[in-house]
Design goal:
Layout (H helix, E strand, L loop, with lengths): L39 E5 L2 E4 H18 L5 H12 L2 H17 L5 H14 L5 H10 L4 H22 L7 H10 L5 E2 L2 E10 L5 H19 L4 H8 L10 E6 L5 H7 L11 E2 L3 E11 L2 E2 L2 H30 L3 E4 L12 E3 L24
Parallel strand pairs: 9-10
Antiparallel strand pairs: 1-2, 1-9, 3-8, 4-5, 4-7, 6-7
């Protein structure tokens, strides 16, 4: 799909693909007894994590590290991989537990799935979801698997929000204390935090470029009339930052092209540029924040401090919550693989002869764990 954002959004690794080891599919012959269709790495209650899923997650981890550290040496990349791969199976089990919790609680994300698919469609300039399906399958992906990845990602996010969102309380005295103890952290050069709406002009005719300019002017006017910039960016921007509401990061003077620096550093927080034409696109930039050089006042960085403290509290609280889910669940891991968050007494999957016709046991609904404050 030339000159378009990749349709393959990054979500958690594919999950929950329960392969029929011995029961046949209608219209297909049964595999012979004893034939291994897929190796199981872990069992989480009535769901499994297969070797192929683990390998896909491993490949995705390599790609993510290379993307996030593009200028790193080979030694640095390898060290980062070694540090993170040890938790790879733990993370897959974590997600499976969260998906199961969401299903047990009756959490529905179907409307969000359709909305996300439509966002991907618009980012790729496709006229319909049917065209998106064809494009996904044209890249060798299963449409149902693609939707399942989106569904599982949204489901885990919603479960985390519901279980954790209102349990972490941060007071003003706590944020003030952090500021007073880390003042040097908030001594900064002049910086702007930017978001963009971007429409590509690559390989366009002059008439098409004029139409694109009118389109981006319309988007800017809609924001001026009260629509949310982030929502417009998610729906219509063609840049890779669309799914983040267009946010592209923080920049000091000298880090942007002069045309963009002149247009943005003259604006206050909340300001928005006129449409800017570059060699490959039309842009509208919004200044999400503008830090003057020197010591930043407490009011200016209050929200940033809130986010820092929240994340510091979130990680251990989330691990405690997932540990409780593990204690109430049936988790087994194959010998040779490690769940770094395994609870004491966790079992290993034993190699046994297959029993094709054994009836599956139904999974009991787990009681909702209580999270200690």
């Amino acid at each position: 799909m030339k000159n378009r954002t990749s349709i393959c959004l990054k979500f958690f690794p594919a999950l929950g693909l329960i392969l029929a080891v011995s029961s046949g599919v209608p219209g297909q012959s049964k595999p012979e007894k004893g034939v291994v269709v897929e190796e199981i790495v872990a069992r989480v209650n009535n769901d499994i994590i297969t070797l192929s899923e683990f390998q896909k997650a491993d490949a995705s981890l390599h790609e993510e590290i290379q993307h996030d550290c593009q200028n790193c040496t080979t030694d640095k990349l390898q060290a980062e991989y070694r540090d993170r791969v040890k938790d790879l199976l733990r993370d897959l089990i974590d997600q499976q537990l969260l998906i199961q919790r969401g299903k047990d609680e009756g959490v529905s994300v179907e409307a969000d799935v359709i909305k996300r698919l439509d966002e991907v469609r618009k980012q790729n300039n496709l006229p319909s979801l049917d065209d998106l399906e064809k494009a996904v399958e044209g890249e060798g992906l299963s449409w149902e698997d693609y939707k399942a990845q989106i569904r599982n990602s949204l489901l885990t996010q919603k479960v985390i929000q519901q279980e954790m969102g209102n349990r972490i309380i941060i007071g003003n005295d706590e944020t003030q204390k952090y500021y007073d103890e880390h003042k040097q952290e908030f001594v900064r050069p002049e910086q702007v935090v930017l978001a963009e709406i971007s429409l590509s002009t690559e390989q366009k005719t002059p008439e098409e470029i004029e139409a694109i300019q009118r389109k981006i002017e319309d988007y800017r006017n809609r924001v001026l009339k009260g629509e949310d910039f982030s929502d417009i960016a998610k729906r219509y921007s063609e840049g890779v930052t669309a799914k983040q509401g267009g946010e592209i990061g923080t920049f000091k003077r000298g880090e942007l092209a002069k045309q963009l620096e002149d247009a943005t550093f003259s604006l206050d927080k909340g300001g928005m540029t006129e449409p800017i034409q570059t060699k490959t696109a039309f842009l509208v930039l919004k200044v999400l924040d503008h830090f003057q050089s020197g010591q930043q006042p407490y009011e200016k960085v209050h929200e940033e401090i809130m986010n820092k403290i929240y994340m510091q509290k979130m990680q251990p609280a989330m691990r405690d919550y997932l540990a409780q889910l593990r204690e109430q669940s049936y988790v087994m891991v194959r010998a040779g693989f490690t769940d770094t968050a395994a609870v004491p007494g966790a079992s290993l999957i034993q190699e046994v002869a297959p029993t094709p016709d054994a009836p599956a046991k139904s999974k009991k609904k787990m009681p909702k764990p209580k999270l200690s404050s």
